[in-house]
Amino acid sequence: MATKPSFRELFEEARQHDDYWTEGLIVEFTEELARWMKDKKVSRSELAGRIGHSPAYVTKVLRGNANFTAATMAKLAKAVGAEVRIHLAPSESRTTWYDQATTRPQEASEPELLEKSAARRR
Hints:
Elements: H1 7-14, H2 18-40, H3 44-51, H4 55-62, H5 70-79, H6 110-121
Helix pairs in contact: 3-4
């Protein structure tokens, strides 16, 4: 009698398929979009109006049931005041994201900013 594979074995097998990674990207994007909508107090119908689609389409996107493109992702992100960022990393690594404000002081000129940046690297 053959033994059933463990959850770990099934999980490792799933990780070998492209669909696993595709679904992971969709989940990651839709969860992030939902967080931005909540933070910005943007309803599904308001987001739908901003992107020129129906609220039902936004619901489909948030459930991960829409086959959307990179262009659609960019449009959705822009509609909530964000942008999509993509990062490739070695498979065995762990990535930590953080966003840093890029506003520059009004009085600093471009050459001054470059000099300050160079001095920090020394």
